[in-house]
Amino acid sequence: MKVLGRSFFWMLFPVLPWATQAVEHEEVAQRVIKLHRGRGAAATQSRQWVRDSCRKLSGLLRQKNAVLNKLKNAIGAVERDVGLSGEEKLFQVHTFEIFQKELNESENSVFQAIYGLQRALQGDYKDVVNMKESSRQRLEALREAAIK
Fold this sequence. Notes:
Structural class: mainly alpha
Helix content: over 70%
Number of strands: 0
Radius of gyration: 34 Å
């Protein structure tokens, strides 16, 4: 019986490295599948975030255009109103124009931020001069926005 067990062991001995390799390959395969699924989920979430953000941005732009049209109509109504004095008309029109200007500047700021992000992502991260210039431009844009 002992002889049979030893001979059986010697018969299985050449198969042992193959069995351990199969187990290692299975572990590697499982790890690759897990990583691939993770990437797929991240890519799907990323695409969904981009799609949702684009929808929100386009919705805001439509809403801004609607508000600008209402402001134009309000300016026209103020100018046609005979019950208001010249100074009152001027004040109300000026108020509406300031609001229009603020909306346009806010839109410009959004697109400048997108452009700045795009430049930062395309830039060389190891180039200190480029990073310094980008930081200076962002600070200048923030300073201008704060002043306005």
